[in-house]
Design a protein that fits this description.
single chain, 349 residues, alpha/beta, eight-stranded mixed sheet, four-stranded antiparallel sheet
Amino acid sequence: MLMPIPRIVLSLLVILALGPAARAESLPLLDAARVPHLSPEGRADYRRFLLQPTPRAFALSAGGAWGWAAAIADDPQASVDRALHNCASHGGTQCRVYARDLDIVWPEAARPAPETPRAALAGGPGWSLMPDRRFLWQGPQAARGAYLWAHGRAAGGADSRGSQPQPHARAFNNAGYDVLRLDRDPETDETEAGAARMRLALAELRARGYARVIAAGQSRGAWDALAALDAPMGSTVRADAVIAIAPAAHGPTGSPAHAWALDDLSRVVAAANAPTTRVVVATFAGDEYAPNPSGRAAAFARLAPRTAALLLLDRPQGLSGHGAGGDWRFTLRYAACLLDFAEGRASTC
């Protein structure tokens, strides 16, 4: 994709892609300065590419044209073909792929991504802690921290294990966080067990030596992360930050459980005891899993005195629906500030 990028977006992309020199040396995929033939605009768009989900591909030509594509029907070859087409359609001749997923494949500078563990790091009945192989991996001693993603619970009992974390997780990964999933078996994925499983996964990450741990999730996964805020002081199950995207646990519009959804949320908020944890909650207009949006916003706001800091993104303009956290506009607007807020820097949200 080749298009003008607003100045504010360019600034965000620079922030997201920059990191310590040692990290750029060990993970050259993240270094836009290494990409040959590109103009400053092309390097800015390459940084935008680094925020995209996989499968993805970035193509360029010796003449300076470029193009990229990502997540086309979960078909790796389709992303490659579209990236080459986009490069050619913007004047490129003999376009070639520079980066594919996490690997640099440009012949003169080919560099595979570091190997990611294939096996679960921990698990128990109905859950497993899985390193996500679609993200760059460094390990507990080298990584800046761990970003733990908990998926939602799909309608009809569909299996959501293995689903890709939302694109804003790329900002954390590009900044040095290992990305792991808290996968849950739909047959045993009851709300009452969610917080306990989250605590077990967080404790495992602490035990492995991660200096910082971020607990994040969508829908039921976000609800579980918030429910785990009741951890006792000094506990190893306390996250440094929680990022809860469209928290929900009571089904879509029409579900009988909506009648007590706000009461349940109020109990989760009242139980929170996290004076060292920074919390982000994002809600969206038109969310069929979120009854009484104003009441929910008021309940989430009551987390402020129970946490180190609260960032409430309540129905931001231009984003709607339960899955809006996966929208590219959410990523470009908020990924950088989520990282800043989680690490205690001044937020640009």
